[in-house]
Amino acid sequence: MHRIGFVVSPGFQLMSFAALSAFEFANLSVPHAFYDVRVMSQSGGAVKSSLGLMLETDPFDDAPHDTMIFGGDLAGSEVSPAMVDFVRRSATKARRVASICTGAFVLAQAGLLDGRQATTHWASARDLAARYPRIKVDPDRIFVVDGPIWTSAGASAGIDLALGMIEKDLGPEVARLTARKLVVYLRRAGGQSQHSALLDMDAKSDRVQSALDYARSNLQSRLSVEDLAEAARLSPRQFSRAFRAETGQSPAKAVENLRVEAARLLMEQTGHPVETIAEQTGFADRERMRRAFLRNYGQPPQAIRRNARATG
Question: 242-249, long-range: CB within 8 Å, 24+ apart, which pairs?
Fold first, then answer.
């Protein structure tokens, strides 16, 4: 049996437990159950979720586990010294250590992500990068595997991470069968950027939102301040002032963010040449797109494509 320890703290998200369903259905897809899942917490006993529901858990101990998975809370809160110590001890014994959603902050506090590539929920990615600058935070990946350390995006991405583990352990056929039983994709198309860019800008007025919608639908166009102001039915000066007040960034930076996210999805999901993608997303040439990728992701477009294929 492959032993999995799933660690929770008070305020954990119930959605994180969807990942455990993948291991449950994998057990039903092979002649003999492969996974033995154990839910743990620092003190054991009943632990309250963010919704107030209680979950019975086992206390930390030194029993060997093949995989340790750490969930987080809604805020990515600091964890206790005892939790940090347990994470570090787990890393010396387990074959792999993983986090779901803001569980990445738990691994980060223990130093497990230093010098590694990792991800977390898109809304927490900037905070993770700011608090732990030694981590190479990728804000768009559904899940990231860096050596023995696995990290996933939002809580539902824990299912994707679990399916990746099942594929590694039991092969692609069992992983596909498990995904079919869960009625989910084995490999979800795209990254978190499909959810993050416009939400992150958080426009508060219909006029600024109209300009953002216009920009996203016309990335191949020049998209000057005058163009966006016209879409918002404001003068350029009024538009620039309102846009920065509502989004916290300039129109030019917002357009670059939309372009680079669209380009990234094309790099991950298609085999189009870099020059074609640069043209389709309004960068005009590959060098401008490369510089934008480096500013936003710290990697050139080709590296983004290689990483996507490596985990696809």
Answer: 242/205, 242/207, 242/208, 243/208, 243/211, 246/201, 246/202, 246/203, 246/204, 246/205, 246/208, 247/201, 247/202, 247/203, 247/208, 249/201
Q: What are phi and psi of 67, to 5 degrees?
A: -130, 135
CB 162 within 8 A of CB 150: no
Give the type of residue at 136.
Answer: K
Catalytic position from the list 19, 101, 123, 157: 101
Adjacent-strand bridge partners of 57: 45
Within its chain, how far is the Cα of 24 from the centroid?
A: 23
Place of tokens 């477009």: 301
One digit per residue, the tens of pLDDT, for the chain of length 312 reads 899 999 999 888 888 888 999 999 999 999 999 999 999 999 999 999 988 999 999 999 989 999 999 998 877 678 899 999 999 999 999 999 999 999 999 999 999 999 999 999 988 888 999 999 999 998 878 899 999 999 999 888 999 999 999 999 999 899 989 988 988 766 664 555 544 554 456 677 888 888 988 998 899 999 999 999 999 999 999 999 999 998 888 999 999 988 998 898 888 878 899 999 999 999 989 999 999 998 887 889 998 888 777 655
DSSP state at residue 237: H
Distance CA 105, CA 183 (A): 30
Secondary structure class of 178 (helix, strand, coil): helix
Q: Determine whether 4 is an active site residue.
A: no
How far is it, in rounded angstroms, from Cα 73 to Cα 205? 31
Whether the Cβ atoms of residue 62 and residue 116 lie closer than 8 Å to each other = no
**R_g of the chain, CA atoms, integer Å:** 21
Q: Which of 12, 14, 68 is nearest to 38 (CA)?
A: 68
